[in-house]
Amino acid sequence: MKKLLFVIIVLILSTTDMHSQCSMLSAIMESDQEYEAAKGLNRGIVYLMSIPYLLVGLIIWKIYRTNKASL
User: Fold this and answer.
1) How many CB atoms lie within 10 A of CB 19?
2) Residue 46 falls within a domain, yes or no?
3) pLDDT digits (tens, 9 = 90+) for 50-64
4) To 10 degrees, the CA torsion angle through 62, 63, 67, 70?
5) Which long-range contacts link 40-43 to residues 24+ away (Cβ below 8 Å)?
6) By residue range, what is the domain housing residue 23?
7) Tally of structural domains, the chain
8) Which of 34, 38, 32, 33 is nearest to 20 (CA)?
9) In a domain, 33, yes or no
10) Which pLDDT tens digit goes with each residue over 12-56?
11) Residues with Cβ < 8 Å from 38, sequence gap 6 or more?
């Protein structure tokens, strides 16, 4: 359990700010036109990317809690 906690803490502390971009957003960002629109779309991509990870985490947590209750 301590090892798992250590790994989780290390992963949280070692994260960096990520920017996901498709080729169109990258082109808009480089041309410096409509920067705010591209920035908003970029945030939307990161938001949509995080949803599956949260759902998988919720499922794993639910399975863990169910198995812990049956022990």
Assistant:
1) 13
2) yes
3) 889 999 999 999 999
4) 60
5) none
6) 19-70
7) 1
8) 38
9) yes
10) 777 665 555 566 666 666 666 667 777 777 788 888 888 899 999
11) 25, 28, 29
